[in-house]
Design a protein that fits this description.
Blueprint lengths: L24 E6 L3 H5 L1 H9 L3 E6 L4 E8 L2 E5 L18 H13 L1
Parallel strand pairs: 1-2
Antiparallel strand pairs: 2-3, 3-4
Keywords: Endonuclease, Hydrolase, Nuclease
Organism: Nostoc edaphicum CCNP1411
Protein name: Uma2 family endonuclease
Length: 108
């Protein structure tokens, strides 16, 4: 997924970011770790140059998405990495449709 999809071999478990580029998208699932995900981890991903960072807030059933640019971030309502995915629609449409769409994106 993204422009770096073929850079790292499938099945690689530990990624050395001194050798490989940072991921295009990072998704954190936050239940008890929300403060850490919005603080320390977000700053880490900004420093690494990840293109997009999502926090899935389990308790509020909310997706917070950020585009990372110039070692900072801003909230977004539509994914730039997964073109065509409006994040607000994730909660409004059938979850199996969202899952099927995501699978097609990962397989590209």
């Amino acid at each position: 997924m993204g422009e770096n999809v073929g850079v790292i071999s499938y099945g690689t478990s530990i990624i050395n970011l001194d050798i490989y580029p940072p991921p295009d998208l990072v998704i954190e699932v936050a239940n008890t770790s929300l403060a850490d995900d919005q603080g320390e981890k977000q700053l880490l991903y900004e420093d690494l140059g990840v293109k997009e960072y999502w926090i899935l807030n389990v308790q509020n059933v909310q997706v917070m998405a950020f585009a990372i640019e110039n070692q900072g971030s801003r909230r977004i309502t539509e994914s730039q990495v997964l073109a065509g995915l409006a994040l607000r629609q994730i909660r409004q449409i059938n979850q199996s449709q969202v899952g099927a769409w995501l699978l097609t994106q990962f397989q590209q």
